[in-house]
Amino acid sequence: MATAFFYLFAFVCVASALMVILSRNPVHSVLYLILAFVNAAGLFMLAGAEFLALILIVVYVGAVAVLFLFVVMMLDVDFTELRQGFLQYMPIGFVVGVIVLIELLMVVIGWVISPGVVANPAMQIDPSLTNTQALGGVLYTHYAFFFETAGLVLLVAMIGAIVLTLRHKQGVKRQNPALQSARTKAQSVEVVKVQPGQGI
């Protein structure tokens, strides 16, 4: 039964991930992304990583994917304009894809040549600890630097996404904090001398 569920979750996860890329409707893409997250959580549950499975459901499906769905549905995003100039990034994308493919092949070849490496982890974990305790201890002690680096990478990706999708509409008034802070008394106050008996 475990093997059957593994193949079921894996097939649906890969198929939904492909549909995220191939779907023309962005709302359908987000729905397929939610399906991929749910099946990935099922794979984590089969592997015994129940904490990761629940975090994937609560954080990604319950927050991130739903946020994507609301953003796509509520904002009037012109995806035709965003897709313009897509072909100029094809060489870089091809190079990155080849590098990822080589890395995956190296992992598979290494596992075929010496399958005992997977059975001998680099760090021994106390079997008396629960899954959550062991994960927290490893993540926030031995790999704290890499964890913080991943947070910085996500921050840069978020800023890049904001910069790429930010569109300034013409005729809309908005604040400029730099100009507001640089205002002087001469720019802000105008003294008018009013003669007696006359209005302003």
From TrEMBL:
Its predominant location is membrane
Q: Where in the cell is it found?
A: Cell membrane
Q: Does this entry carry the keyword Transmembrane?
A: yes
Q: What is its EC number?
A: 7.1.1.-
Transmembrane residues, as ranges? 6-23, 30-47, 53-77, 89-113, 143-166
User: What top-tier enzyme class does this entry carry?
Assistant: translocase
Query: Family, per the entry?
Result: Belongs to the complex I subunit 6 family.
Role: NDH-1 shuttles electrons from NADH, via FMN and iron-sulfur (Fe-S) centers, to quinones in the respiratory chain. Couples the redox reaction to proton translocation (for every two electrons transferred, four hydrogen ions are translocated across the cytoplasmic membrane), and thus conserves the redox energy in a proton gradient.
Protein's recorded name? NADH-quinone oxidoreductase subunit J
